[in-house]
Amino acid sequence: MLEGKKIMVVEDEALLALDLAMTMEDLGAAVIGPCYRLGTALELVQQMKVDGAILDVDLNGETVFPLARYLDEQGVPFVFHTGRADPASLLEAFARARICTKPSTPERIATCLAEALADADTDPGSDNENYAPAYAQDGSSGSSQQA
């Protein structure tokens, strides 16, 4: 599903970050991170090629939005993994983002990310009229729900 992809994991909860990283590796991805701080993630993303990212919105009181804007400008697909932010407002600011609300299983997050990567591979342009930003509210499997 994520074979050969370079995936950045940005999450301030250490156990969750490690669980996400291990799941990505189990699916064949090369993990960049996990990054627990925004500054570290911004430095790494400017030094390394990233194919996709999993972003916790709140990193110890700091929002991940500067990194999300950078990734969006670079055309890098990403998933917001959050328990606090409003999905509708996130999609207003980041129309191509995917959102998995906490709690979600690492496998569910991986599925959301794989869908985002597939959409980006299908049409990397920002004017893809078939692109359906989505979010998942639970850890169930299956397609993401359109917001």
TrEMBL record:
Domain Response regulatory: start-end pairs:
6-117
Which InterPro entries does the record cross-reference, listed alphabetically?
A: CheY-like_superfamily, Sig_transdc_resp-reg_receiver
Question: Record's superkingdom?
Answer: Bacteria
Q: Does the keyword Iron apply?
A: no
Q: Where is the signal peptide?
A: none
Under Pfam families, the record lists: Response_reg
Q: Which UniProt keywords apply?
A: Phosphoprotein
Q: Where is this region: Disordered?
A: 120-147
Record Gene3D superfamilies: 3.40.50.2300
Q: One GO BP annotation here?
A: phosphorelay signal transduction system
According to the UniProt entry, which residues carry 4-aspartylphosphate? 56
Q: Any keyword Transmembrane?
A: no
Protein name in UniProt: Response regulator receiver
Q: Which source organism?
A: Frigidibacter mobilis
